[in-house]
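Action item from last week, closing it out:
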Amino acid sequence: MGVNAGSPDRILIWGAGAIGGSVAAYLRRAGLNIAVVDANAAHVQAIRDRGLVVTGPIENFTQVLPALTPLEVTGVWPAIFLCVKALHTEAAARELAPHLAENGVVVSLQNGFNELVISEIVGGARTMGAFINFGADVIEPGVVQYAGRGAVVVGELDGRATERLARVHRALLHFEPAAITTENIWGYLWGKMGYGALLFATALTPDSIVEVLDSPPERPALTALASEVMAVAAAEGARPMGFNGYDPAAFGPKGTAAAIDASFDAMVAFNRRSAKTHTGVWRDIAVHHRKTECDAQFAPILDLARRRGISLPHVERLVSLMRRVESGALPQSLENLSLLAGGESKSGEVSPAP
């Protein structure tokens, strides 16, 4: 498949979807020794047949690169970028573990606290955290729309500055020139979960990210969601980091109405610049008709909250509503945000109990 097994800096990207496909195409184009793995045989075959097609407002190009299914992977790799959805993390980590070099590293280019799951399987010393907020979608097998730039941050779980962190960062600079390293990767992951809660809420509706975040009537329920996540972060002693308009302090205990509105306005401005109008969660429901990452992403936060006796009524309602929308028991509707707020829909349906 054109992979040089002797290269000391080769990277295996496990999951060639929106995240992994976008990153892989740029890194391979820059001359790095990259191969991709994906469980979708049609996607893999399309990449083999014509290369990985990247479309969108940033640029359009086709990149030839080796593409494998999990059963076709051989040998060991010094770096594996894990780019699957959170609900597939455990299975993917177990599949890739035999192919990770003894002193290799798995980099979690995902949403959620997947580093916890990965480290249980390959070990904390072989796990690195990453935070991403760029916009991308798989449009069809072999085609990824890279819709908008966003933050890319990578860091060791213990905050150390290491040579392998520097290598991973240098690689990611080929994808996002503004990518940075951090000693506080957990802070970025907590920040993304606060912002992510807002994005999950938008997927309960047919409306775009901008339409929901820019709607004053919806902001109180959305604010409550982010504030609950930030409350758990505070209890855990985390220092949530802001990015692309999301200001964690605005949704913290000392946040003001003015700061909250300013953050919403900044998030709206950021998302207006992207060709990605709806979340990947929305696509899972409306296009692919499959389960979302909701349970996998929020389970750790709900567990931490229970241990500390913190009530998260809006987060619990979000998870409950998402399950019903995923199953088709509840349609995507703006009325779902009334249920999220703890009220009734126009049809008289009462919000599900947390």
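Closing note: Residues 1-7 have pLDDT under 50 and may be disordered.
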